[in-house]
Amino acid sequence: MHKKKTSGEYPAIGDKIEIREAKTKTNNKYASQILDIIDDNIYIISGPIQKSALIPLHVGSLIEITYFREDKGRFVFKAKIIEREYKNIYKLKIEKISCTTKLQERNYYRLSVKLDVQKIYNLKLDDNNKEVIESCIAKDISGGGIRVFCNFKHSVGDIVKLNISITDFSITALGTVVRIQEIENDNFKFSLGVKFTEIEDEDRERLIRYIFEQQRKLRKKGLI
Questions:
Q1: Which of 128, 123, 127 is CA-nearest to residue 153?
Q2: Pick from 36, 76, 94, 130: CA 20 to 30 A from residue 65's CA?
Q3: Spatial distance between the Cα atoms of 98 and 115, rounded to a whole number of angstroms
Q4: d(CA 145, CA 152)
């Protein structure tokens, strides 16, 4: 295959991506990766796997590809599956059939906090998936994302599941790692910026109400 380097806002070989089936009611999203780039519109991507089981996506199906470019944001385009292969590794050849669009993110107030967070990540080892569960601490949070201190060394684009304990309730969200920093901390090695990519509307609203209430209390004390 003829590999082509890409830069700027376009996906590159090795980028973590998210697949969503375009014409289903379930709105399921799956982690994947760009394995090769044939030309501007033809990509080879890894087929989605969950809990060691292949997720069968069929030739001719329409999908939506979402990916991050560091310091540039989140992008999406529509594609069609044109080939499927199971030899050695589950792979899909896809054809881009739409323009690439930058997703506009809402601006949310970011609240400094200290919250317990359980982070769950599916780590691929050879042909197997290993579920990595880590207890972390949130340092700030908003309706659009969270900053988490952890010890597992992630990559930008990793998709993680977060169980976040907030006072008298908890929320669960899927997020994508958009920033990584090494930190000097007695308990943790890394600070992760995670943008929520899948969160129930009710959970987001509960989270925003909690943040507004904390803002109100801080203003009353003259702290903001």
A1: 123
A2: 130
A3: 40
A4: 19
Reduce the DSSP state of residue 155 to 3 states and report it.
Answer: coil
Sequence letter at residue 9: E
Domains annotated on the chain, with CATH: 16-102 (2.30.110.10), 111-220 (2.40.10.220)
102-160: per-residue pLDDT in tens?
Answer: 876 666 788 899 999 999 998 877 777 888 999 999 999 998 899 999 999 999 999 99
What pairing do the DSSP bridges indicate for beta strands 128-141 and 62-69? Answer: unpaired
Across the range 207-224, mean pLDDT stands at: 82
**pTM beyond cutoff 0.85:** no
Q: What is the pLDDT of residue 135?
A: 96
CA 129-39-33 angle, to 5 degrees, is: 10
